[in-house]
Design a protein that fits this description.
Elements lengths: L14 H11 L4 H18 L3 H10 L3 H12 L4 H11 L2 H9 L8 H10 L2 H12 L5 H25 L14 H10 L6 H20 L4 H18 L2 H10 L1
Helix pairs in contact: 1-9, 2-3, 2-4, 2-9, 3-9, 4-5, 7-9, 8-9, 8-10, 11-12
């Protein structure tokens, strides 16, 4: 199974058609992204960042949770080095996402791979991976879905800067649940065999345990690494390979 993955990375459709498809397929996710982009802008301005700094963080960091955390730390007068390290820890899970996509990007240029890695999010990873696993994915499609979410995040940041206090708290309407529920919905079709289901369940259990027992955000990366390592070990076992083939 693992040796077949890279072959679908360059399957059709490709080029502008795939890019357009990726962009359009991600538009339904805008509903969950836009309110938080606007609220981030309000939070950042309230914390003392200038409009230029607020927009620059969305343009160059592009990570919702990290941007909210950075704004809060800035308001508290935390040292810049601490803010940077905290942001890196929160975003460390993206290393695992990029590693999972890497086999499908081997024929993309270094510049294309760098651009895709920069804009990759939890949601766009799930959207793109669904296509790769059905032999319809391509770097162009992944770039399209990445850019779609990137554009709405910038637009909502600007809206938040302009509208300010007129924007209500998304949690009031339950929109804070949109992100996790959307990701779970995108994830479920990817659990196609016993090993992937086990890895997902183990990741969830370890993450919950880490959130309750460990400080900071390191538990997210730890849970991902441990569960992925166990999944890789199980996938190499002869009986696991047979079970996967039967599922497929």
């Amino acid at each position: 199974m693992a040796s077949e993955s890279p072959s679908v990375a360059i399957s059709t459709p490709t080029g502008s058609t795939a890019f357009r498809a990726g962009f359009v397929d991600t538009i339904p996710l805008w509903l969950g992204v836009a309110p938080f982009g606007a609220i981030y802008a309000v939070s950042a301005l309230t914390a003392g960042l200038s409009p230029a700094q607020t927009l620059a963080m969305s343009l160059f960091v592009f990570a919702g949770a990290s941007q909210f955390t950075a704004a809060g730390l800035f308001a508290a007068g935390v040292a810049p080095f601490t803010i940077i390290i905290t942001t890196l820890v929160i975003n460390a899970r993206h290393i695992l996402l990029a590693a999972a996509l890497a086999p499908f990007m081997r024929q993309a240029s270094p510049a294309a791979r760098a651009g895709i890695a920069f804009q990759l999010t939890d949601e766009t990873f799930a959207v793109g991976m669904r296509r790769f696993l059905t032999s319809q994915g391509s770097p162009a499609y992944q770039f399209g879905t990445n850019l779609s979410l990137y554009c709405i995040w910038q637009a909502s940041t600007i809206a938040g800067m302009l509208l300010g206090s007129l924007i209500p708290d998304p949690a009031t309407y339950g929109l804070d649940l949109v992100f996790p529920l959307t990701f779970i919905g995108l994830l479920m079709p990817l659990l196609r065999d016993r090993v992937s289901g086990l890895v997902a369940a183990l990741s969830a259990a370890l993450t919950l345990a880490g959130a309750l027992l460990l400080p900071g955000r390191w538990y997210i990366l730890i849970a991902g690494l441990v569960a992925s390592g166990i999944g890789a070990f199980l996938a190499r076992q002869p009986h696991t390979t047979i079970a996967q083939k039967e599922k497929v």
